């Protein structure tokens, strides 16, 4: 592993470095409690490469000492459907744990900011997990303010609840798994902030 003096470079993703990004993306999924095998299937069947190559998507890859150490996945998005104000949204930002606290995320965010300026975007948006206190504090320090609370529900669950039905045992198991993952994430955040 390199010392904190290692030079970090950030540039838009090219085919040359797609493999390095794919390995980071798999690591990100695994770190968040998802199956490594499922993430590898997304890579192998080409879904990840197609997602990265969509119009309006830019992926910035941070490299140090010849290895991929982080990425920022951004896309062009108006602030709202009603107001066509140009904005850039950060879908994901990830840095390998061994490279955190070395300025990699800052360098990635500088690249995102420069991209937003070139595009004429008036705002940069980011969805930050509510359970990640460190990430929320960091983004707040950088000037990000809450705009809305976005809630997501599986279509089948919403329809069942609206019709008055109860969750199946399998759905209850899935909900318990999600709660367990959230609790683990909160514990990890607490351990990191200690």
Could you describe the 3D structure shown?
- With 194 residues, this protein is of the alpha+beta class.
- It contains seven helices and five strands, in the order E-H-H-H-E-E-E-H-E-H-H-H.
- The protein has a five-stranded mixed sheet with strand order 1-2-3-4-5, sandwiched between helices.
- A hairpin with a 2-residue loop joins strand 2 and strand 3.
- Helix 1 runs antiparallel to helix 2 (36-44).
- It is globular and about 55 Å long.
- The two termini are 24 Å apart.
| Order of strands in the sheet with most strands | 1-2-3-4-5
Rg calc? 18 Å
Question: What is the straight-line distance between the termini?
Answer: 24 Å
Low-confidence stretches: none
What is the residue-mean pLDDT, rounded to a whole number? 85
Q: What's the total number of strands? A: 5
Helix content: 40-55%
Note the beta-strand portion.
15-25%
- State the secondary-structure class: alpha+beta
Task: Give the oligomer, counting copies of the same chain as homo and different chains as hetero.
Answer: single chain
The helix-strand sequence is: EHHHEEEHEHHH
Blueprint of the fold:
Blueprint: E1 8-12, H1 18-31, H2 36-44, H3 47-52, E2 57-64, E3 67-76, E4 87-95, H4 104-119, E5 123-126, H5 133-141, H6 155-163, H7 169-193
Parallel strand pairs: 4-5
Antiparallel strand pairs: 1-2, 2-3, 3-4
Helix pairs in contact: 1-2
Which key terms come to mind for this protein?
single chain; 194 residues; alpha+beta; five-stranded mixed beta sheet; 7 helices; globular
